[in-house]
């Protein structure tokens, strides 16, 4: 008798478990979400190159901007450009993370792994929960590396411990919103061209904020777009909380950065979460 | 599952993409514990029907039940009863074969220890034990396919869907896949298998549905189907091209209908009624006509021939003869002419 054919008593042991009570469903959803998260973490161990690359990229950017262009940059109201730049790079790191979400989601979809998950008796939420947790962890790691780099090049968090924690919280809130945008975009992607496009668009969208230069130095209309870019609110809010130069401004949006750094991500979640769920349910491939 | 019950039931399934119907009134009934083959050419609707039955796609019309559960209203129950091997291997490329199987075991809610044990059993069975630690990227197509199959058998599901499981495999791997399917069927699993190979259906299936343009156009046991399409075929390759007419004339006396001649390969092929007596008769007739044959071979009809016979559409559209359904022989002759 072959090994694949389970002995009769094994057949019962291999019977699938269907969660019937809400509590059981919740427990399995957590367990399945953790299994999918472990898969993401195993990827880090087996292919550390990808993770190292994504940790090194923001560091490289901050060194490049801080030292190559830094001398030519004017911080409005005066101040050290590197102090101005590092909070912007924190936000950009969250944006680059979205590219990773898109890539991972699209790869699973196009290779049929998502379809396989969808035919299994696992909690449907686990696929996205696992993705979200993995990506949040990798972003947390990237923030830590950039934090250390910032300290090494003369940036400082001047605020209280509470303010610093709040700043990190706002960054992660933004990343959480971008997870859902990334999942939605990833599920839309038909092939690798789309991913390249998303990764290319990250730059103009990132430059069109207050991350690298103050919007007041841009042409009027462009400056307005940059100020209203949802990323700018988080940039200004964390500058304020870290006590770095370059926050505040004349416009309403600039004066309410802290509020908007919460509102924008919540709006993004409200848009992309239902879109992603719908897309996930109606996938045709 | 009750052996007399129906494991898979589809009634008038319809699925539309744009203004075309990929499924257009698809009916199917698979008794529990049997293997059912879905035979059809590219674009017939095989993957679409498997997609609806495995809860991946929503039907635009009709209804379907798998293991007694409605696929639309009881998707969770259906998912707990099925395994699916998609047309393209769907496994994690970075993880090792073993890590893949352990993950799928965990997601099927096996305990960590049971998931590991099951992974090792499956690797052993599919001859993947020594490559179990390698990442999937380094697997060959056949190894990947076998792992894919193993992943769908983690729980020995009551109903297993296989979408062209052996396309692109070498004969040995193909035999192993068949073996694995048979051993699963021995434990009571019902299998719905799509394929483009009549031989595969022949090897595995208790019954076959031939599907074209989203509809079942013929149904029966493999033997019934083959006799409906005219039984086996004989190919004779002659040594010299100028002997083709003489050989064709000789074959016509013994065979069931007019032989087709292919000048390029110096091959004549015809339908035979009875395998063994036909072979002896053909050898005698060729001898009498003084034709030197390079090769004589009896073979099963190909899927192409089944289709030409059953529908006539593939060639009817190509040759513009407009024949639909009815006499496949006319279409076949049109092709040969
Ligand atoms: N996502 C989709 N969008 C649009 N059309 C589709 C989609 N999926 C399938 N189709 C169309 O539906 C029809 C049936 O496709 P299906 O994949 O079910 O065929 P199949 O029998 O599995 O073919 P193959 O042997 O090539 O795998 C085809 O005409 C195909 O072009
Ligand atoms: Mg297909």
Please specify the SSE layout and strand pairing:
The complex is a heterodimer of chains A (285) and B (337).
Chain A: H1 8-13, H2 22-46, H3 48-69, H4 81-110, H5 113-118, H6 125-152, H7 161-188, H8 192-207, H9 220-228, H10 230-242, H11 252-255, H12 257-281
Chain B: E1 6-17, E2 20-31, E3 35-39, H1 46-53, E4 61-66, E5 69-70, H2 75-79, E6 82-85, H3 97-107, H4 112-125, H5 141-152, E7 159-163, H6 171-186, E8 190-195, H7 198-204, E9 207-212, E10 215-220, H8 222-228, E11 233-238, H9 244-254, E12 260-262, E13 267-271, H10 275-289, E14 293-299, H11 303-310, H12 313-319, H13 328-336
Parallel strand pairs in B: 3-8, 3-9, 6-7, 7-8
Antiparallel strand pairs in B: 1-2, 1-4, 4-5, 9-10, 11-13, 11-14, 12-13
Helix pairs in contact in B: 3-4, 3-5, 9-10, 11-13, 12-13
How many alpha or pi helices of chain B? 13
Biggest sheet layout of chain B:
6 strands, mixed
Shape of chain A: elongated
What is the subunit organization of this protein?
Answer: heterodimer
Number of helices of chain A: 12
Main β-sheet of chain A: number of strands, strand sense, barrel status? none
Termini distance of chain B? 52 Å
Number of strands of chain B: 14
Average pLDDT of chain B, to the nearest integer? 84
Low-confidence stretches of chain A: 1-9
Helix content of chain B: 25-40%
Helix proportion of chain A: over 70%
Taking all Cα atoms into account, the compactness measure Rg of chain B is 23 Å
Element pattern of chain B in H and E: EEEHEEHEHHHEHEHEEHEHEEHEHHH
Give the amount of beta strand of chain B, in percent: 25-35%
Bound small-molecule species: adenosine-5'-triphosphate, magnesium ion
Tell me the series of helices and strands of chain A, N- to C-terminal.
HHHHHHHHHHHH
